[in-house]
Amino acid sequence: MSNMSIPTPCGTAAILRVYNDEERRAELMQDLGADVHLALCRDQLIHREYDFSQRAAEALYAATEGNQLAEDAFALVVRSAVARDPLAVVGLLFRQWLDLAVRQLTSNLADRCEDGQRVTFGARQ
């Protein structure tokens, strides 16, 4: 694809390079990742077009269902907590599961956006 040229009021033109599919997906993942992080911090809802709204923390856990790696990681966190391992160990395992879950949720939301569905974030009522 060629570059896009957009005229400016002063008579010059801004040249924008057109993103390929991988670059577009990477930017979408970055933007949605920031939105998911903010939604988790603010305890917001995630609204999916043609689907139900869900609390961000619930959507995070739901995104890992069916993902064997994420389910195994969560089971490891629970097993470590039940075994009364040091809190630093449990916290580290939870953090690793959390990073995996956020990536999975972000990827799921990006898939919906690429399919033309709207995904929005909003405050809980």
TrEMBL record:
Organism domain of life: Bacteria
Identification of the protein by name: Uncharacterized protein
